[in-house]
């Protein structure tokens, strides 16, 4: 069987880094291995791509058949995408792109999912006379169809059995969207967990416990799927008439026009409320990935419900606290005694030489092997637990699909390197002590931040609980972390709103959810920025009680050059009054907060009963008076008992977004062939991939070099590389607008591309 070459891993499960985002592999610097299989008849040098048609899809298909004899049409997407997927020879890609009927060509991507106290915490699960449907019935999501595009759903689970009404298995092309079982490959559970947050109705209760679940299995064994499969699932769901669609999956492409993002935009145009996780690649800006970049979908970040967070201190240095994020699949972190800690490199088998790990915690660095391999190697070495510290700035959430008999947690890069330094400088063995701290309503450090490149839109749209979320999994229940867990809270809330207001369109549902959020502040009391929390944290009860809608519910004034003349930019919002009497609304812009911006808005607006009115918000901007960088704030609209905050962003000069992202390097179909890709969100004057020795950092070779690339994915196939087989440190670089950025990753050259294993 051959392997499809395009491979953008989506890590969004509840636990970032595994988490399907359940994935067992990390985004960087591990070399991903493509797993999708294609027919045995396919020959070396072929590729599967997603094609967008300029006009009529059928005409474009016929044009391709005539002009590209090697092309084999796989699936046609007319409902939400306006295009098709096809398999063709690599050498025919340029011919395909030049056809008049073709708008764009994208490689497929491999998606992995991103993985009950949280439900009452956000104001759901209450019996309240203020929360009734149009017939006076309690709001439970009854009669609302919610599609879950994921790894499938265990419809035999007692808490879900009554609610799963249908769906489709895109992977096996049948009507049975069950989770992958052990005899089919690496088993999955992510979709069942997501479905439980939405609509479990048994031992635990979801946000909308009587909603109808339609399961679409687009992610197969191990939680992997492709752009093509996700698009097909969206098409199926929309055709089946779902009211709400949840996608707890994503990739690292921060761009508004990736196929899955565009498909969700079109699903919304057809009346579907689309909800998606923002990603688990935080805490830096620009880390939200597609489809969380969809303009019309609801992108959801992760916050903390009331939760007990473990932390560590050295027994001889108690001033510095090292915050822990427990690893999914490991034993619960409930240490009550001091325990020695030792360091073991990247956690490879070879790193344990001369390391006595028995009965101790092992500190290892993220990268060069999967979480599962690190944990299993530590277990075999006799360790009591494992600490994996990040290889990128900040924290991460992670885990494995199969349980491992040891405790485990992740650390931020900063905390891990500090602990490593203490170990290196100590002349005696060091021990750590665990403490616990109650926290809530903080952003999860792993939650991806926006905004979106090119459009500069605010994302995520809002946040919801995504840490230690208990929900259903095959044969039981499990607590998971991730924006994958936050997204279904919002999908369930959308189901309640649709039951309450069956005539609402997706924009109204989105507005109700965003207009009624709670603004969050960090531990220093600083209000989180719009690109971090969107409008704020979900409050279901407030959304069900609102009498006013304002949309769009976030604003962007785009980018400005310092040398630009003073200019007025106008944005229009709609205020909708749902009461039976007229209401007077006051517009309160952030006057005086920024030199260089003068706001021009009406002082008040009267909106009649059950009417809506458009209002112009104008900002008179003098770029010469504004400092470079991001400027953000809120515009308040008050009326009656409602106060609605509209977050806005504005950039002075070209934003400092990453010039390169989403790098992947995999073995191709032919012997000694390789496929690479990376995304350029703003294009680049020059870009490429350079190889270095992983230990000495000595330069080896330039693998790829490109000049004057447009915005989008850069990809290609390589063969017979002029370097010796082995593992290399790859430096992916791009220069755009005078700014140069790099990504570091480890890649394998030569067969077989295996991580070190015990014999």
TrEMBL record:
Which residues of this protein are catalytic?
A: 150, 190, 484
Q: Name one GO molecular function term.
A: serine-type endopeptidase activity
Instruction: Tell me what organism the protein belongs to.
Output: Shouchella clausii (strain KSM-K16) (Alkalihalobacillus clausii)
Family the entry assigns: Belongs to the peptidase S8 family.
Q: Which residues form the Peptidase S8/S53 domain?
A: 141-536
InterPro entries reported for this sequence? PA_dom_sf (IPR046450), PA_domain (IPR003137), Peptidase_S8/S53_dom (IPR000209), Peptidase_S8/S53_dom_sf (IPR036852), Peptidase_S8_Asp-AS (IPR023827), Peptidase_S8_His-AS (IPR022398), Peptidase_S8_Ser-AS (IPR023828), Peptidase_S8_subtilisin-like (IPR050131)
Provide the taxonomic classification. Bacteria, Bacillati, Bacillota, Bacilli, Bacillales
Q: Signal sequence: where?
A: 1-25
Q: Where is the PA domain?
A: 348-419
Pfam families in the cross-refs = PA, Peptidase_S8
Is Cytoplasm included in the keywords of this UniProt record? Answer: no
One GO biological process from the UniProt record? proteolysis
Q: Tell me what this protein is called.
A: Minor extracellular serine protease
Keyword vocabulary terms for this entry: Cell wall, Hydrolase, Protease, Secreted, Serine protease, Signal
